[in-house]
Structures are given as structure tokens and as C-alpha cells.
Write a structure and sequence with these properties.
It contains 6 helices and 13 strands. The protein is of the alpha/beta class. The chain has a single domain, classed as 4-Layer Sandwich (Purple Acid Phosphatase, chain A, domain 2). Keywords: Hydrolase, Iron, Metal-binding.
Length: 260
């Protein structure tokens, strides 16, 4: 039996004159997900769901995703306001029916674990001891079942200095927590607006590109300005106990886009 997770990130939905392009980008990516065969078990969006964290932006987000027919899970990023996110989505399927921004959802073939790495008024990320202890308990519940851990901030440097300065600041603590368990299939992140793959904590870390604008590959000390490069998302597939990751083009694909 094949299981899969569609991994989208950083839609940065907003309101006002600039609202059209990011909303269209997310809707188009979700429509592309629906054309996959077989369809994935779920979709996860790894943060920066909106651009300014306002209640109005989260209402726009609900309008875009509200009729999406597959399970869809939201992750908070540094552009998000967890309180406003919860005010709009607490207790819904988009937050695993929970009233907090970190939660876990049990699927037959895997456990999806969502962490909240946001720090108020900071672009960087932090999990903290209590959330890492919670994660440890969640991972121990189904030790024989693969776990996919999702957060916004990458826990290691990715080679883009500007973004590395605002990564997860307790990445070593996360690595220690994950290292106590042998069932970590993937660690999924966003924030970078580029696809990046690296070894992490005995598993594989992947960051998904943005459904709106990509970051420039600034491997020096420059600012990685946003670029209108092609959009895509990642598809993490488990078949015969091996996890593989595919990049699925969206904006420049000839594939159909489903409506929902």
C-alpha cells in the first residue's frame, strides 16, 4: 500500500490590492494536488500561511481552503499570528481538531506531527522544552509507525546566510528529541522559499518551495530577494517502507489543474 503527503509552503496570503497572486498560487497548487493519482493521504502547508497575521487574512485563507476535499493541515510560521490562526481554525480539521498550534494526527501508515516554532515579533524560530517534551511523548505512542514531523523554521543552516540567521535556534534540542526514536521518516519545513534537502537527526529534512514567490539562491551575505521562479510542491511517498520525495511542478506544468 502506497501512502503520500503533499508538502506545500509559504503561500503568504494577504488582503487588499496585492491579494490576488498569492491566493491564486495556493489555489492552483491545491488544484494540482487533486490531479495526482493516487491522491495523497493529506496535505500539509508548512507555515507563513498569511503575510501579516491579521484576522482578515485568515478569513481569506479559509475561503481558499475551506472546500478542499482532502485532509489539510496548517503549520504556523513567523509571518503568522498563532492567536489569530486559532481564532479562525481552532477545533477544525485544519488543526487536527485541536485548539493549539502544535498537534498530531494519526494516519494508518504514519503519524503527522505539527510543531509551532513561532516567536512573537521575531523572524526566527524556537520550540522550547515543553513542546519538545510533548513531541517525545507523541513519538513514543506509535513506535513502529513512521512519523513525519512538520515545522516552519529549518533546524539547521541551509547555506543561505540571511535565512540561516533566522532558523530554529534550538535545532540541536529537536535533533536530540528525534534521535531518541527510530521512526522518523521525514522532517518537513518551509521558510526558505526553496526546495532544500539535508540529513538531519538520522532522517531527512526537506524544505518546500513557496506556492507564491521563491527566494534567490544567495549563498553569500546578500539578501535573497523574491523571484517569480516556477512554483512547485513536494510529494513525499512511502512505498515498501522506503520514503522518497518528488518535486511536482505547478505554475509551468502542462498537467491539468482541478477545481474545488
Amino acid at each position: 500500500m502506497t501512502s503520500s503527503i503533499a508538502h506545500l509552503s509559504d503561500p503568504h496570503l494577504t488582503t487588499g490590492p496585492l491579494a490576488g497572486a498569492p491566493a491564486e498560487g495556493l489555489y492552483r497548487a491545491l488544484g494540482r494536488v487533486l490531479t495526482l493519482a493516487p491522491q495523497p493521504d493529506c496535505v500539509v502547508i508548512t507555515g507563513d500561511l498569511v503575510d501579516r497575521g491579521t484576522p482578515e487574512e485568515y478569513r481569506v485563507l479559509r475561503e481558499v481552503i475551506g472546500r478542499f476535499p482532502l485532509p489539510l493541515h496548517l503549520v504556523a510560521g513567523n509571518h503568522d499570528d498563532p492567536k489569530a490562526l486559532l481564532a479562525e481554525f481552532a477545533g477544525t480539521r485544519f488543526l487536527g481538531d485541536e485548539a493549539q498550534a502544535h498537534y498530531a494526527v494519526d494516519y494508518p501508515a504514519f503519524t503527522l506531527v505539527v510543531l509551532d516554532s513561532t516567536v512573537p515579533h521575531s523572524p526566527g524560530g524556537h520550540l522550547g522544552v515543553s513542546q519538545l517534551e510533548w513531541l517525545d511523548g507523541i513519538l513514543a505512542r506509535r513506535p513502529e509507525t513512521p512519523a513525519v514531523v512538520c515545522l516552519h523554521h529549518p533546524p539547521i543552516a541551509v547555506g543561505i546566510p540571511f535565512l540561516d540567521g533566522m532558523r530554529l535556534d534550538d535545532g540541536e534540542g529537536l535533533a536530540t528529541a528525534l534521535g531518541r526514536h527510530g521512526n522518523i521518516a521525514r522532517v518537513l519545513a518551509g521558510h526558505v522559499h526553496r526546495p532544500v534537502t539535508a540529513a538531519f537527526a538520522g532522517s531527512t529534512l526537506t524544505t518546500a518551495p513557496s506556492t507564491h514567490l521563491q527566494s534567490g539562491l544567495a549563498l553569500n551575505d546578500g539578501v535573497p530577494n523574491h523571484l517569480p521562479e516556477p512554483t512547485s510542491f513536494l510529494l513525499h511517498v512511502c512505498s515498501d517502507l522506503a520514503w522518497v520525495t518528488h518535486t511536482v511542478p505547478v505554475s509551468h506544468a502542462v498537467a491539468p489543474i482541478a477545481c474545488f
